[in-house]
Amino acid sequence: MKQNKRQIQKETTRKLILQAAYKVYSNEGFDAATNRIAKEAQIAHGSIFVHFPTVEDLKAGLLEQFGMDINKQLHELSENCDSLEDILYAHIEILMKHQGFYKRLISESSFLPEQARYVYVSIQSTVSFHLSKVIEKYQKEGKIKMLPIHFVFNSWLGLLHYYLSNEELFAPEGSVLNRYKEELAGNFLKLLAI
Amino acid sequence: MKVCIACGMPMTKPEDYPMKDETKGYCIYCARSDGSMQSFEEKKEGMSEFIMKTQGLESSVAHKAAEELMRKLPAWEKYFEAE
Q1: Is the torsion defined by CA of A104, A105, A107, A112 positive or negative?
Q2: A194 Cβ partners below 8 Å, 6+ apart?
Q3: Is the pLDDT of residue A1 over 60?
Q4: Are the C-beta atoms of A191 and A178 separated by less than 8 Å?
């Protein structure tokens, strides 16, 4: 259905608010005030609430959009990965692209509405979907240990999240994932190998 | 790009469709062996099992997460309308 000018304008402003919220929350955390987001989007403060009646609605809308974007990117990147190593690197690459926001997501979940928890599960499901296909294949071929898939997945996530949450200890300057990606992926594969 | 109406997975190649039938709106993982789409209960159970198996979530949390993920998908709209 063709949208009229008013609908297009509304959609454009909504996108602008979400982009600004993504930037402000990435830099300042999820407790940042909405007037910071309005300033970033260069719109009147009240406009935010025309599109998102409450801050909770804004956060839920942002998380939903983030979930859709990251799932699409993960899927596209993992689709052509045949090896476990490729999938691990594809995962790191996507997280590096969204590092600021993802770091807030894993460390400040208490500032987020309940709905956000399920967006989080949805993001991890896309990763675990691609990872589990390769893990099962490798286990059948006798290339890696017969550990439960969820344990392999959670160990990998735990490792990444530990380095991300303590970035200032591991990489005070620059991206911790960029600096340690070879060490993390390489040694994780060695731990799994038979 | 088409996205599965029942699970949200992007469908980019014939192998993503049930029986490689690209006219279908749902993916191979949401189809039964005869190519028809799984029911709401079948999909919810399958998705919950997948979440438990690959992420290790507790059963009731996995079922709730599956339901919340399905809530946003066009195939299951009518199941949530009454709420």
Answers
A1: positive
A2: A142, A143, A144, A145
A3: no
A4: no
Task: Domain ranges for chain B, please list them.
Answer: 2-80
Same domain for A42 and A81, yes or no, is no
Q: Return the residue in A76, A79, A150 with the most chain B beta carbons within 10 A, the one to mutate for interface testing.
A: A150
From chain B, the residues in CB contact with A151 under 8 A are: 56
Both A37 and A71 in one domain: the answer is no
Using an 8 Å CB-CB cutoff, list chain A residues near B51.
121, 125
Chain B contact for A118 (CB, 8 A cutoff): yes
CATH number of the domain where residue A46 is located: 1.10.10.60
Query: In terms of residue numbers, what domain contains A4?
Result: 1-53
Same domain, A122 and A177: yes
Q: Please check whether residues A129 and A106 belong to one and the same domain.
A: yes
B48: closest chain A residue by CA: A125
Residues A28-67 pLDDT 10s: 999 999 999 999 999 999 999 999 999 989 998 898 888 8
> What sections of B6-73 are H helices per DSSP?
40-55, 59-71
> What residues of chain A lie within 8 A of the CB of B56, using their CB?
148, 150-151, 153-154
> Of the candidates A12, A11, A10, A58, which has an alpha carbon nearest to the alpha carbon of residue A33?
A58
| CA quadruple B42, B43, B44, B50: dihedral, nearest 10 | 110
Of B10, B53, B54, the CB nearest to A72: B10
Model pLDDT, residue A2: 59
Where do we find the tokens 């490798």? A138
- Same domain, yes or no: A117 and A142: yes
Q: What is the structure's pLDDT at A60?
A: 86
